[in-house]
Amino acid sequence: MQYGLSWFLQNRRTLDTIASVFVIALVPISQVRAKSHVLDDLSMEESRWIVFDADFNALEQAVIYANAQEGERIALDLAGRFAA
Description:
Shape: globular
Number of strands: 2
Largest sheet: 2 strands, antiparallel
Order of helices and strands: HHHEEH
Strand content: 5-15%
Structural class: alpha+beta
Number of helices: 4
Helix content: 40-55%
Strand order of the largest sheet: 1-2
């Protein structure tokens, strides 16, 4: 997880975008599965990001790619779609 996140969040613009739009939380898989089926039938060999609404409904998820440019693209896209 540290490897993937360090590359995904490497760019300052990515960090600033995520910090300004989202609440960041590391949540155990058991707690996610207790509230949502978003991870059912998915491989957990790689870390994933999940966007939840205020009621803990999963809106979107994907694997965290260890790539700074891809992290920035994903962060900007998600911020554009989910910013209140």
